[in-house]
TrEMBL record:
The keyword Protease does not apply. The chain crosses the membrane at residues 20-37, 49-70, 91-113, 125-148, 169-188, 194-214, 243-266, 278-303, 324-345, 365-386, 398-415, 421-441, 453-478, 490-512. It comes from the Bacteria. The keyword Oxidoreductase does not apply. This is Polysaccharide biosynthesis C-terminal domain-containing protein. It comes from Grylomicrobium aquisgranensis. GO terms for cellular component: plasma membrane. It is found in: Cell membrane. Its main location: membrane. InterPro entries: Poly_Biosynth_Transport. Keywords: Cell membrane, Membrane, Transmembrane, Transmembrane helix.
Length: 519
């Protein structure tokens, strides 16, 4: 990489990290919602999956449509300043969002019945229909927000973009938990009503941030600084096209799981109750857990993306390898202890955190979310690294290959392992994606034995300490299944033991001098 590379306009490392944090927060919110929803938490599974799909359609599809519309009209007339570009962008976002909303409104009832499957309760179908109609309103507001943010990205206003997205997510987080708590605890409504209130919270948060954008821009006008509108159009188009393709490919695996898992279970004779509880564990608690290690390590991992992007622009291959190594090391020391702990103690975790849906079967399904959390984070990290290196086409190809492997093996795995086969197929999906991505990045992240050995040693120490804390607590008489405050003490001590082992391992390793490489 001795030649200087010309950076393709459109990839914003700050915007990419912001979108990732946004989605991870949405997945983490599932945990308190599940504890509020209680036994009806299985209804959250299709709700959260569809929310992600609507969100991706708005954030990736709408800017792409906007860019195409603006490019079409720019050939007919010349814009005098960026105000005209922005005005048409906001209007186009509203029109595209309104089209999506109208389709979703019309198809809400039949789509709800199809998603929930045969034998679903009438109340569940009604609740799902109301949720989809809330999402229809969400598509309009999110479509206009995508228009505002497209201009911010096109003008390289990363600070404004990230501030708006994080403000929206913070507001959505507070509103969601507050409305769900008010609905279930104070108003004594059913948990399905709480799920509808959660959908409404997303709409209110988007509308509030949209109102702020409109107020800041004095209507549908724009800041008065003059900017070359052709450059904005080009950057919006370059930014939206790869994200649109990536959004479609990223949603394939979870869409496939959502719509095929029930039919696969019925086909192989699995009981309907086991299918419903397993779907709740997989699509709600499982994917929330997968987001946790990535969210905890994203500050260190993804702040390196701008540095990787800069090194790629300057043709500095050594710096790229250095930052990739450190990004993977930062993630592994968080993900490996957590994933291993979940795999070893899934029964106690489900019993303590989700007692309303606990059974031996759900605990056995939840066990495999531990390895999935490790590979999920590595796969997402590889996707963003490929984007930073301007390898969008290769990323789409790798995602498609991994999906074909997953789709081909899903039914045999369900036949052999039951509903656990769904998680196993997802593990294979991300394993294939990580293998292909690392081969393309050409990094020595997993070949530098000294650095990798230290990371694995610290991760192993964290795993063993958490496992040992669990064993000692069981000897002390604090049972994982006891319905008392011992559960809370148990988890606090286990996490404290893991953190202590992590830092103590670093101190112990400093006692052994390491030979420095010659520069």
């Amino acid at each position: 990489m001795s030649e200087r590379k010309e950076q393709i306009p459109g990839f914003s490392a700050g915007g990419a990290v912001c979108r990732l944090v946004e989605r991870l927060i949405e997945m983490i919110v599932i945990i308190p919602l599940t504890m509020l929803a209680g036994a009806d938490s299985a209804l959250l599974a299709p709700v959260m999956v569809l929310y992600q799909i609507v969100f991706e359609a708005a954030c990736a599809g709408v800017p792409f449509g906007i860019a195409v519309i603006i490019s079409h009209y720019s050939r007919r007339k010349k814009y005098k300043n960026v105000m005209a570009v922005f005005h048409d962008t906001a209007i186009a976002g509203f029109v595209i969002g309104a089209i999506l909303a109208s389709l979703l409104m019309i198809l809400a009832a039949p789509l709800s019945a199809w998603i929930l499957g045969r034998g679903a309760d009438t109340s569940d179908i009604a609740a799902m229909t109301a949720v989809l109609r809330c999402f229809a309103l969400f598509a309009v507001s999110e479509g206009m927000l995508a228009g505002f943010r497209s201009v911010d990205q096109g003008m390289r206003r990363h600070h404004d973009y990230m501030r708006g997205v994080l403000a929206e997510q913070g507001l959505r987080l507070v509103l969601t938990i507050l409305l769900a708590w008010l609905c279930v605890r104070k108003l004594q409504k059913a948990s399905s009503s709480a799920i509808m209130m959660c959908a409404l919270a997303g709409v209110l948060a988007s509308a509030a941030v949209l109102a702020y954008y409109i107020h800041q821009s004095h209507g549908l006008g724009m800041r008065t600084n003059a900017v070359d509108e052709s450059r904005i159009q080009k950057q919006i188009l370059h930014a939206s096209r790869p994200y649109l393709i990536q959004a479609v490919l990223s949603s394939l695996w979870i869409l496939f799981d959502l719509f095929v898992s029930g039919y696969a279970g019925i086909h192989y004779g699995i009981a309907a109750a086991d299918i419903k509880s397993a779907q709740g564990i997989i699509f709600v608690q499982g994917y929330a857990l997968c987001a946790l290690p990535l969210l905890l390590s994203c500050v260190d991992c993804f702040t390196r993306l701008p540095q990787i992007e800069e090194a790629f622009t300057n043709g500095d291959g050594d710096r790229i390898e250095q930052h990739v190594n450190r990004a993977f090391a930062s993630f592994l020391i968080v993900a490996m202890p957590l994933g291993t702990f979940v795999f070893l103690h899934s029964d106690a975790i489900v019993k303590a955190l989700f007692p309303s849906i606990y059974s031996a079967y759900t605990a056995s399904v939840f066990r495999w979310t531990g390895p999935l959390a490790i590979l999920f984070g590595m796969g997402i990290l590889c996707m963003y690294l490929l984007s930073a290196l301007q390898l969008h086409k290769q990323l789409g190809t790798y995602q498609l290959i991994a999906f074909v492997i997953k789709a081909a093996l899903l039914f045999p795995l369900v036949k052999k392992w039951g509903m656990k086969g769904i998680l196993l197929s997802s593990i294979l999906y991300f394993a294939a994606l990580v293998f292909l991505s690392l081969a393309r990045i050409r990094t020595r992240a997993l070949v530098e034995y000294g650095r990798t050995g230290i990371v694995l040693l610290k991760a192993l120490a964290g795993c063993l300490s958490m496992h040992g804390a669990m064993y000692l607590l069981s000897l002390a008489g604090i049972d994982a299944g006891a319905a008392d405050s011992g559960i809370l003490k148990q988890f606090i001590l286990m996490m404290a033991a893991g953190a202590a082992a992590y830092y103590m391992t670093g101190d112990v390793l400093r006692l052994f001098p390491k030979r420095r490489k010659r520069q």
